[in-house]
Amino acid sequence: MSDRTPVRRALVLDPAATATADAITARLKSTGYEVSSHAVFADPTEPVDAFVYEPGLLEGTPTRNAAERLLTVVSRLAPFLRPPEEGGSRIVVVASRDGLGWPSRPELAAQSGALVSAARSLALQLGRTGTTVNVVSALPPEGSPLREAGRPENTHLYEPQALTPHPVTVQDIADTAAFFLDPRSGYITGQVLHCCGGASLLSSLSV
């Protein structure tokens, strides 16, 4: 009997080249994944255990038609996802809490809302195949240009702050993604987890 640990392969699709995707890539490598990170999707040649899609919403430079691209990529990935008897595969989508509504970024809000809807639909579609699909919905992390946006014109609102002692960081987002990608999270699918330091406890106009 071989005592070799099977290689776990992850694909991080990062068309906007973000610090968040870099942190996710580093986090996955630290847990033993063999990670392939790309700005442009190419069909893999070996099974994929984990797929992370980071379209740039948290940096304010979203990939056009991000939800449509997600659906296209997952369709092309389908032959390379693990079957249930091999533990299935994990898919994580990085979205923005702007999907709950924000006055100065309606395009980002619309893209985030569409990503959540697409991810939940994929979770329904892929459930029986052993693949889970979940969403990390985050505040723009520390260092994002969106953090300095200030008050939207004609409102009393300011960019929301985490309720925790420190702002949300790219490492916080990477750790949340890693939770969904862990084999022990295989019974969680179709969920949206807010990585926001508690800001989602507030109303939709304040998160």
Tell me what you see in this structure.
With 207 residues, the chain is of the alpha/beta class. Helices cover 28% and strands 16% of the residues. It contains four helices and six strands. Strands 2-1-3-4-5-6 form a six-stranded parallel sheet, with helices on both faces. Strand 3 (50-53), helix 2 (66-77) and strand 4 form a beta-alpha-beta unit. Helix 1 crosses helix 4. The longest helix has 21 residues, at 106-126.
How would the blueprint of this fold be written?
Elements (H helix, E strand, L loop, with lengths): L7 E6 L5 H12 L2 E6 L11 E4 L12 H12 L12 E7 L9 H21 L5 E7 L31 H12 L10 E4 L12
Parallel strand pairs: 1-2, 1-3, 3-4, 4-5, 5-6
Helix pairs in contact: 1-4, 2-3
- What's the overall average pLDDT, rounded? 90
Number of strands: 6
- β-strand amount: 15-25%
Query: In percent, how helical is the residue content?
Result: 25-40%
Specify the structural class.
alpha/beta
Order of strands across the main sheet: 2-1-3-4-5-6
Number of helices: 4
Shape: globular
Could you spell the SSE succession in H and E letters?
Answer: EHEEHEHEHE
How much is the radius of gyration in Å?
17 Å
Largest sheet: 6 strands, parallel
Unreliable segments of 5+ consecutive residues:
none
Report how far the terminal alpha carbons are from each other.
Answer: 53 Å
